[in-house]
Specification:
The chain is built from 27 helices and 26 strands. It is α+β, with helices and mostly antiparallel strands.
C-alpha cells in the first residue's frame, strides 16, 4: 500500500535523507522517497504490519512534522507555502534587525570618522553579546534541532555544519568576553576601547544570511509548483444539479455519479460526464492543450474544468472526486514531481560522504594553520568556520528535484504528462521511435477519400442509403459522408449482406450492389482497363475501394481509408532532425503499410504484426543496442509500451491510458511526442547544469575558505561564506525556473543564457567577496 505525506520542518536535502533513513528502520515500511523540493514523502508499506498513524509518528520521532496529503483541499498547499515563507521572513527580519548594530560596530574599526565611535566602543562587547544571543539560540534554534535529529540518526547534514560553525564563533567570543571581564574586574565587560577577539557578528551574520537564503529559497520553490496550483485552481466550486425537476446549486464534493448537471454558456463544467441534452462547443485547452473548441452533442463525453462556450448543456455525471480526468492529471503531475531520476542517486551519493569530508577538511585547515603554520587561534578558528559554512550541500540537494518539478509541471500545461524522473531521463536517450499505425499515425477512423462517378451521378446517395443498414465499420464512413454533404437517404428494401464480397439492396425497382471484385465477378461485370488502373492506384495508396453497380452495369467507385493525421509527417521529420530513427509497426498488409508510411515520410516499416508480435519487434530493436520509444494508444499496445525503454501513450483528454507508458500525450497530436523529447532534453540539461554549478561552487569555495590562497591575498570571511552559500541555493532554483519559458518546438533562449549568467555571477561573487574579505582582514 502507498500513502503520501506532507512534511514540515525540513531545512535542506540532508533532512530528506534523514527522514528516509528513519522510515527505512521502521518495521513494515518497504520503501520511501522524501522530496525536499515539494516537501512530500511517498511511503510504500505493509498495512498488515504498520498503520499510517505509526508512519507519521516515525517521522515526528525523527524531528519533523507530517500529515496525510488531502487531495480535496486545493488551498492547503498554498496556505502551507505562504506560512513557510512568512515564517522564514519573520526569522530573517528579526535576525537582520538584531545583527545590524553589530555591522555598525564592525565598520567603526575601518571607518573611524563614523559618528558615535568614542561613545559606543566601550559598550560593543556587552551589546554584541546581548544581540547575538537571541539570534544564536532563538533564530538559530532550527539548526540545533536538526543537528540533534542528525546525531540520533548517526548522520550529519547542513544543520550540523551551520550549528558547528556558528557555535564555534559564538562560544569563542563569549569565552574571550568573559576572560576580559574577569581580568578587568568589570561585570559588564566595559572597557575604554573595543574588546579584541570578539566575533559575535560572525555568528549572527552567518545565521542571518542562511535564514535569508531559506526565505528566498522558499519563495522560489513556491514558483516551481505553479503548475499544480494552476491545475487545482481550474475546478469550479459549485455545480447546478437538477433533481426532481428543480435546479440546485451545490458544492461539487456533494455531486454524485448519475446526477444531472446543467452548464450555462461561459461556465466551467464541474465534473466529468456524458451529454444528455443540448449542443455546444467546449474549450478543453486547459486539459489537453488543444486551442480549438471541441463540438459536443448528445452522447459525447465532457471533462470537468473545461469551459462551455456557447449553448447550454445538460449532462449525466460519470466521475467525481479523485476519479475525474483533472484529478488523475493532478495526481500524475504530483507523482512525477515527487519522483526521482537516476541522476539524483549521484547527488545522494556525493551528499552522503560530503558533510563528513567537509568536517575533516575544516579540522585539517585548523590544525595546519594553528599547529603547523603558527597562525593565531582566531585566524585558525575563523578558517575552520568559513570552510564548514561555505560547503553546505544545499545547492546539490536542490539541483535535481527543482528542475523535475518545473519541467513536469510545464509539460502538463502543454498536455504532455510525464510520469516521473525515470521516463524524463530515458526520453533523452531515445534513438529509435516506433509508431503504431492505426489511431496513432492515422486518425483511426475510416473516411471517404474518393468518389468516382462512372454511369450515375447519385453514387453517394445510393451507396449511403444501402450502407446505412450495414454494421460494417466501412459503412459508417460512407453514411458520415452523406451527412457532411447533406445528401438525403432514400428507402431501401431487400437488404442483404454477402459474406466476403459486399452488400446488396433494392431502391425502387432497381437492385444495387456494393462490394469488391468478387461481387462484381458474381454479377458477370468487369471493370474497364481505365477503371481497373484507377482501382489499383487507389489500393496502392492504402485505400479500400468499393465498387457500386446495378444488375447491368458499374455505376461508380467509392474509396475509404484511415487517413494520416495532419501533424504526423511534420512530427516524423522533426524526430529525424533530432537524429532519431523512426519506425512504423502495424498489423496491416505490406501494401497498405507502405502507402501510409510513404505519406508520413517513414522509411522503416514493420507490417503484418499481430499485437502480441509487437513486443518481439521491440526486443529485436533493443538487441541492436537501441534505446526504443514506442508510441501507441495505450490500450491494445500496452505490452509493447511496457517493453519499450520509453512508452508514450496517446490520449484524447477524456479516456487517457494513465497506467500505460511513461508519458501520456493528451492531444493526440504527434508533435507533442517531439515536444516530450525536447522537454526531456531541456530538463536533463538543466539538472546537469545545476549539479555542475553546485559541485563547482564547492570545489572553488572550499580552498578559498580554507585560505589556501592567502599568500596572494585571497581569503573569505565566514559571514560572507554564509552569504555565498545561501545565494548558491537560490541561483540553482532560479536556474531551474528558466524551464518555465519552455515552448514545444522552440528554443528557450532564457534557459540557454542562464548557465552563462550563472558562470559570470559565481565568478564575480567569489572575486568580490574575497576582495572585500581581504580588505577587512588587512
Amino acid at each position: 500500500m502507498k500513502t503520501d505525506l506532507t512534511i514540515s520542518g525540513m531545512h535542506c536535502a540532508s533532512c530528506a535523507k534523514l527522514i528516509e533513513k528513519a522510515l527505512s528502520k521502521t518495521e513494515g515500511i518497504n520503501n520511501s522517497n522524501v522530496n525536499f523540493a515539494n516537501e512530500k514523502a511517498r511511503v510504500e508499506f505493509d498495512e498488515a504490519k504498520i498503520t499510517t498513524k505509526k508512519i507519521i509518528e516515525a517521522v515526528k520521532k525523527a524531528g519533523y512534522g507530517a500529515e496525510i496529503v488531502d487531495t480535496s483541499d486545493t488551498e492547503h498547499e498554498s496556505h502551507k507555502r505562504a506560512r513557510e515563507i512568512a515564517h522564514y521572513f519573520k526569522l530573517f527580519a528579526w535576525s537582520a534587525v538584531l545583527s545590524a548594530p553589530m555591522l555598525y560596530f564592525m565598520m567603526l574599526d575601518y571607518f573611524g570618522w563614523l559618528p558615535g565611535g568614542a561613545v559606543l566602543l566601550p559598550y560593543v562587547g556587552i551589546v554584541s553579546f546581548i544581540l547575538a544571543t537571541p539570534v544564536q539560540f532563538i533564530v538559530g534554534r532550527g539548526f540545533y534541532k536538526g543537528t540533534w535529529s542528525s546525531i540520533r540518526m548517526k548522520m550529519f547534514g547542513m544543520d550540523s555544519l551551520i550549528a558547528i560553525g556558528t557555535t564555534t564563533a559564538y562560544i569563542y567570543s563569549v569565552v574571550n568576553f568573559l576572560v576580559y571581564a574577569i581580568s578587568k574586574e568589570s561585570v559588564l565587560g566595559l572597557a575604554g576601547a573595543k574588546i579584541p577577539e570578539l566575533y559575535f557578528e560572525t555568528a549572527a551574520f552567518l545565521i542571518t544570511f542562511v535564514t535569508m537564503g531559506k526565505w528566498l529559497e522558499a519563495r522560489t520553490k513556491g514558483k516551481t509548483s505553479e503548475a499544480i496550483k494552476k491545475l487545482m485552481g481550474l475546478q469550479p466550486k459549485i455545480a447546478h444539479v437538477i433533481r426532481d425537476g428543480k435546479t440546485f446549486d451545490i458544492p461539487i464534493n456533494e455531486v454524485i455519479p448519475g446526477d444531472m448537471v446543467l452548464v450555462k454558456p461561459g461556465e466551467k463544467i464541474p465534473v466529468d460526464g456524458k451529454v444528455a441534452r443540448g449542443h455546444s462547443s467546449v474549450d478543453e485547452s486547459m486539459i489537453s492543450g488543444e486551442s480549438l473548441p471541441v463540438e459536443k452533442q448528445v452522447g459525447d463525453s465532457v471533462v470537468g474544468a473545461t469551459i462551455n462556450k456557447l449553448g447550454s448543456l445538460e449532462f449525466t455525471v460519470t466521475k467525481v472526486g479523485n476519479e475525474t480526468v483533472l484529478a488523475q492529471i493532478i495526481r500524475l503531475v504530483e507523482e512525477a514531481q515527487g519522483s526521482r531520476a537516476r541522476i539524483q542517486d549521484f547527488a545522494d551519493r556525493v551528499s552522503q560522504y560530503f558533510v563528513p569530508t567537509v568536517l575533516v577538511a575544516a579540522a585539517l585547515a585548523f590544525i595546519i594553520w594553528y599547529f603547523v603554520l603558527g597562525s593565531t587561534l582566531t585566524f585558525a578558528l575563523m578558517t575552520f568556520t568559513a570552510v564548514i559554512v561555505i560547503a553546505c550541500p544545499c545547492a546539490l540537494g536542490l539541483a535535481t528535484p527543482t528542475a523535475l518539478m518545473v519541467g513536469t509541471g510545464k509539460g502538463a500545461e502543454y498536455g504532455i504528462l510525464v510520469k516521473g524522473g525515470e521516463p524524463l531521463e530515458m526520453a533523452c536517450k531515445i534513438n529509435a521511435m516506433v509508431f503504431d499505425k492505426t489511431g496513432t499515425l492515422t486518425n483511426g477512423k475510416p473516411v471517404v477519400t474518393d468518389i468516382l462517378k462512372i454511369n450515375n451521378d447519385n453514387i453517394l446517395q445510393i451507396a449511403g442509403s444501402i450502407e446505412n443498414l450495414s454494421e460494417h465499420p466501412l459503412a459508417e464512413a460512407i453514411v458520415n459522408k452523406t451527412k457532411e454533404d447533406k445528401v438525403e437517404l432514400i428507402a431501401v428494401s431487400e437488404f442483404t449482406a454477402i459474406p466476403g464480397q459486399g452488400i446488396a439492396g433494392r431502391i425502387g425497382e432497381k437492385k444495387y450492389f456494393i462490394g469488391n471484385r468478387a461481387l462484381l465477378k458474381m454479377q458477370n461485370l468487369k471493370l474497364s482497363l481505365t477503371d481497373e488502373t484507377t482501382v489499383i492506384n487507389l489500393e496502392r495508396e492504402g485505400k479500400t475501394v468499393m465498387i457500386v453497380s446495378d444488375e447491368n452495369k458499374i455505376l461508380g467507385l467509392v474509396a475509404v481509408a484511415d487517413t494520416l493525421k495532419t501533424t504526423s509527417r511534420e512530427a516524423v521529420l522533426q524526430l529525424e532532425k533530432m537524429g532519431i530513427e523512426v519506425y512504423m509497426i502495424t498489423g496491416d498488409n505490406e501494401r497498405t503499410a507502405t502507402a501510409i508510411a510513404a505519406q508520413a515520410g517513414i522509411r522503416n516499416i514493420i507490417a503484418g504484426v499481430l499485437p502480441e508480435g509487437k513486443v518481439e519487434e521491440i526486443k529485436k530493436l533493443q538487441e541492436k543496442k537501441m534505446f526504443v520509444g514506442m508510441v501507441g494508444d495505450g490500450i491494445n499496445d500496452a505490452p509493447a509500451l511496457a517493453q519499450a525503454d520509453l512508452g508514450i501513450a496517446m490520449g484524447a483528454g477524456t479516456d487517457v491510458a494513465m497506467e500505460t507508458g511513461g508519458v501520456v500525450v493528451m492531444k493526440n497530436d504527434l508533435r507533442d511526442v517531439v515536444g516530450a523529447i525536447g522537454l526531456s532534453k531541456q530538463t536533463m540539461n538543466k539538472i546537469k547544469q545545476n549539479l555542475f554549478f553546485a559541485l563547482f561552487y564547492n570545489v572553488v569555495g572550499i580552498p578559498i575558505a580554507a585560505r589556501v590562497f592567502a599568500g596572494i591575498g585571497l581569503v573569505l570571511k565566514p559571514e560572507l561564506a554564509g552569504l555565498a552559500m545561501a545565494l548558491s541555493s537560490v541561483s540553482v532554483v532560479t536556474n531551474s525556473l528558466t524551464l518555465r519559458w519552455f515552448k514545444p518546438g522552440k528554443r528557450n533562449w532564457v534557459s540557454l543564457a542562464a548557465p552563462v549568467i550563472m558562470t559570470l555571477f559565481f565568478s564575480a561573487l567569489f572575486w568580490e567577496f574575497a576582495r572585500f574579505s581581504t580588505g577587512i582582514m588587512k
